[in-house]
Specification:
By secondary structure, the chain is mostly helical. The chain is built from six helices and no strands.
Length: about 140
């Protein structure tokens, strides 16, 4: 398990598992999340990502309708993380089983994951650019 690709997949899978565990531990009913929105603390205004933790916690508990009320983009980002977890595991197993698949698999994985990232996070990316250009 000395391969950088496998180590990177393990790292990303671990991050996704931590996000899911975090969402399961902290209760949307108690609103006891330890990470607060810095943007909202400074400006008093919510940002595009405000409510994601709450939304994720509700999704983990099967309360989908409520999750959309906290952040309309929560489900698309949550699904990105779930899909990435499945891909990290699947691609790692494929990489181990078919050792000669290395470079093409990594290229396909990188391009596909990049496209999925852009689709999932596009509203957030656009809000950053919109905010930046409004400041100028």
């Amino acid at each position: 398990m000395n391969e950088p690709y496998l180590l990177l997949n393990l790292f990303f899978a671990g991050v996704v598992v931590l996000v899911i565990v975090y969402s399961g531990i902290f209760s949307p009913d108690r609103n006891d999340y330890p990470v607060a929105c810095i943007h909202q603390k400074i400006t008093g205004e919510p940002c595009f990502s405000c409510g994601l933790s709450h939304s994720f916690s509700l999704i983990v508990r099967g309360r989908i309708h409520e999750a959309y009320q906290w952040n309309i983009f929560g489900m698309r980002v949550f699904l990105f993380f779930i899909l990435q977890l499945a891909l990290r595991i699947g691609f790692s197993l494929y990489y181990i089983r078919f050792t000669d698949s290395g470079r093409p698999l990594i290229i396909m994985d990188s391009i596909g994951s990049g496209i999925m990232f852009l689709i999932a996070f596009w509203p957030f990316i656009m809000s950053i650019f919109k905010g930046f250009f409004e400041q100028v």
